[in-house]
Write a structure and sequence with these properties.
alpha/beta; Aspartate Aminotransferase, domain 1; Aspartate Aminotransferase, domain 2; eight-stranded mixed beta sheet; four-stranded antiparallel beta sheet; 13 helices; binds pyridoxal-5'-phosphate
């Protein structure tokens, strides 16, 4: 554990807690969109219908009606065919990253990551002393030519390829359909399981939904994970792993049991009581989409209008983030330390790069601030970068 570094995100939260700061740093959904009333009704139903059971200890695998709902919902939304028996309810996707790390990784084992990669995954795998092989990405996601090269040259067979194929955190980029098929074929060839983390798949604002890798691979050699954090609310801490390899599933269950016995009986039932009402979750997601789409568009336009020459950024089709690249000489970590006076926060990109070797990128969240705040925040950011460049000249 002494190898674990203090979380960069936690450091950033210190800045965002200062008054008057406009924050693009967190990954927070918009709290005004949380379905508070419908969820209150669901909680009352749980207590009225099966109060004592909802307050009792329960099985590690999760509440069976919720697992059945997850299986049916995955078939409907991403065409992934699985049984309730393949579904393990977990306490947030973050727990899934830890559990898969705990079960699959011995010290020194290799994990293949897209570069840049989700910081929370790097932190989870770091705790098991993983080593990383990083694969280059472009506007279509992980580059399959580089993946094939990295796997062919790997010093030993990697235990996992971990990726976020839809509206990736941090880049906002989506893996194209042809690449998805190529990734599956390459991983099949090299015998490397795919761990697909999909918290954002339902938050698509433009373009067509793409099939999940797990669905394309028909569950073979794959682990799929999703969560209610971005569709209902992150405070629920309810998510799921889908593991069709029985042997692996049976190893992950005791790992979870050792960690927390089970995910909250009450919350699982409340999520189920909320989601079982036909159309309620779909209607909720449908009303979130235009709000987030507008915020994304407002941020893209403000960046175009207000950022200095030489800055570029991604144009995500969904999710919560976009990824900006400053001129080469900007160090965004240093920029953030100056941001306390400009009162705008962002996440410096370096910790998302597997070797921390790229200094001039940043992650910007567009879901949490209002449209007016987004424009004002980007104005502050533009001024900040301009001031930095003037000084660095
Ligand atoms: C790619 C990815 N995986 C996992 C998580 C953690 O999600 P959860 O709230 O389900 O733990 C996040 C949260 O931002 C994420 O972006």
């Amino acid at each position: 554990m002494s190898g674990l570094k203090a979380s960069a995100i936690r450091e950033i939260l210190k800045v965002t807690e200062m008054p008057e700061v406009i924050s693009f740093a967190g990954g927070l959904p918009a709290p005004e969109l949380f379905p508070v009333e419908d969820f209150a009704r669901a909680c009352q139903e749980v207590l009225a219908e099966d109060g004592p059971a909802a307050m009792q200890y329960s099985v590690t695998e999760g509440y069976l009606p919720l697992r059945r709902w997850v299986a049916a919902n995955l078939l409907e939304t991403i065409h992934l065919r699985c049984d309730a028996d393949d579904v393990l309810i977990i306490s947030g996707s973050q727990q899934g990253l830890d559990l898969i790390g705990k079960v699959l990784l011995d010290p020194g084992d290799y994990v293949v990551l897209e570069n840049p990669a989700y910081l929370g995954a790097i932190q989870a795998f770091d705790a098991y002393q993983a080593r990383y092989l990083n694969v280059a990405t472009d506007d279509d996601g992980i580059r399959t030519d580089d993946l094939a090269r990295v796997l062919a040259q790997a010093p030993q067979r990697p235990k996992l390829l971990y990726l976020v194929p839809n509206f990736q955190n941090p880049s906002g980029i989506t893996l194209s359909l042809s690449r998805r098929q190529e990734v599956i074929a390459i991983c099949d060839r090299f015998g490397v399981p795919i761990f697909e983390d999909d918290p954002y798949g339902r938050l698509r604002y433009s373009g067509e939904h793409l099939p999940s890798l797990a669905a394309l691979a028909e569950g073979r050699n794959s682990i799929y994970m999703s969560t209610v954090s971005k569709t209902i609310a992150p405070g629920m801490r309810v998510a799921w792993l889908v593991i069709q390899d029985r042997g692996l599933y049976e190893r992950v269950v005791p790992a979870k049991q050792a960690a927390d016995l089970h995910t909250s009986s009450f919350t699982q039932r409340a999520v189920y009581a909320y989601a079982r009402r036909p159309g309620v979750l779909d209607a909720h997601v449908k009303q979130m989409l235009p709000v987030y789409a507008r915020r994304r568009d407002v941020m893209l336009k403000a960046l175009g209008d207000l950022m200095p020459d030489g800055c570029t950024w991604t144009h995500p089709d969904g999710g919560l983030f976009l990824w900006a690249r400053m001129p080469e000489r900007v160090d965004t970590q240093e920029l953030l330390s100056m941001a306390t006076t400009s009162k705008v926060a962002f996440v410096p990109g370096a910790p998302f790069w597997v070797n921390r070797d790229v200094r001039n990128t940043m992650r910007l969240n567009f879901s949490n601030a209002s449209e007016e705040m987004i424009v004002e925040g980007v104005r502050r950011l533009g001024d900040l970068v301009e001031g930095y460049l003037a000084r660095a000249r």
